[in-house]
Amino acid sequence: MPTFDHIIIGAGTAGSLLANRLSADRQCRVLLLEAGGHDDYHWIHIPVGYLHCIGNPRTDWLYRTEPEAGLNGRSLRYPRGKVLGGSSSINGMIYMRGQARDYEQWADLTGDDAWRWEHCLSAFKAHENHWRLDEGATEPPDAAFARAHGHGGEWRVEKQRLSWEILDAFAQAAVQAGIPATKDFNQGDNTGVGYFEVNQRKGLRWNTAKAFLRPTCFGRTNFEMWTGVHVQRLLLERQADGAMRCTGVEVRTPHGVETVHASGEVLLSAGSIGSVQVLQLSGIGDGARLHGLGVTPQHELPGVGQNLQDHLQIRSVYGVQGTRTLNTLSRSWWGKARIGLEYALRRSGPMSMAPSQLGAFARSDPDRAHANLEYHVQPLSLDAFGEPLHPFDAFTASVCNLNPSSRGEVHIRSPRIEDAPAIAPNYLSTEEDRRVAAQSLRLTRRIVGQSALAPFRPQEVKPGPGPDSDEDLARLAGDIGTTIFHPVGTCRMGTADDAGAVVDSRLRVRGIRGLRVVDASVMPTITSGNTNSPTLMLAERAAAWIRADAGAGTA
């Protein structure tokens, strides 16, 4: 029964950074456990390869949601990364922090000023390596930008290596509709329209395995990593003073079941779905529910699996004329050859594309104090990721409610690790979310109706012209809405008197010593934008607290 100082469950976004930071102390033995495999599939690293990774059992856990009433009974594909780097190996590569107000809200909800924007900003900068701060950068930053960003860290942020006529026209139309142009979404207020910056290096995906595991951790003798292994349960012991402690994990490997102990902490970083599954299989959660499933309750925490939040994107499709989009450019052998040659020679062009290239943050109505909508605009269209592109030129303007009030849940179905959890996001279940969905579709139509797009004669394909009442538009949103892959909140942090909180403000599981959850599941509310980089920030902060506690002998 081997013993390590720290055991990290999950080699995804948070787990990769934790492994790097904790194993930097050569006296600290760190074990990293990953249920998936290595990130050696070539389509992981070619940016447009997300089309081949989502829905692929080699790289995706292939989860699905329960049928959703708010989506008119539809069930959605729910991608989660199944390789080193986790979802950073299959996601949209967009570098986005959210807004300052997100973290001010976290501080208020947890009663801990450590989560205020100024402190979170320092953690973002600690691992950032922004291209505009490179020596000899083509667009040197101003003083405000330099104060807000970091350089020399592991997390590379670069400018996209492409442009599209139709996206430039959409950006001009957004400005005409009252959304200001911006070159930086990441200084605390992301209102504006502009091209997203991406986590790439020279036209290749930059996932967290590249950034934090290889080569640094792989060269450390105090670091060990097991892949293709499943944590069946956490080991819990009642101590002499009556307190519960997590002492290790039971792991199913290709060679059988092994028990591994931690003298310090067990760190659960399996994500908003996986972390819930591990906790509940270990008897941590709603005792009555677990007992009914055949799991012996060990520790009552009814909030485990509750408070699921996600960004629902409403994907409007517009057919266009007089310009090329990826739909038709990639259909001919000559078009494909040009695309492949450009990428081979320059690492640019459509094969370097993130799933969304142009972004915009706007208000669903003028009375809102902050942007509450995010657009992901693409020079392509398809029925769903993994489906063929449409045979006509088109662009997609996806818009999501950044701060949904709907709350869902995640729960195991059985005591078997092989059985995928039930995922019920509960999209569009509140009147406010349905109203914002209707407003967002109206704003999309207003942007597309501006003169900048008129030369391309855009025609609405989805959801299609029709009635304009809030009720009708909310129903149409339910027909075309889909996840943008941002599940958070299922092990949320909170104050000591918050019965639904799973962890405290330092991410320690309530009532269990030696156990923390460090991933997007601890977010009490979803951030106003893409969630990958905020998860890294969480892990950066947690690593500092773990090291401090270990040094003080309180782990």
TrEMBL record:
Q: What SUPFAM superfamilies does the record tag this protein with?
A: FAD-linked reductases, C-terminal domain, FAD/NAD(P)-binding domain
Task: Please list which residues make up the signal peptide.
Answer: none
Residue span, Glucose-methanol-choline oxidoreductase N-terminal domain? 81-104
What one GO molecular function would you report for this record? flavin adenine dinucleotide binding
What Pfam families would the database entry show? GMC_oxred_C, GMC_oxred_N
Instruction: Tell me its cofactors.
Output: FAD
User: Out of the domains of life, which is the source?
Assistant: Bacteria
Q: What are the alphabetically sorted keywords of the record?
A: FAD, Flavoprotein
Q: Which family, according to UniProt?
A: Belongs to the GMC oxidoreductase family.
Task: Please give the name of this protein.
Answer: Choline dehydrogenase
From which source organism is this entry? Sphaerotilus mobilis
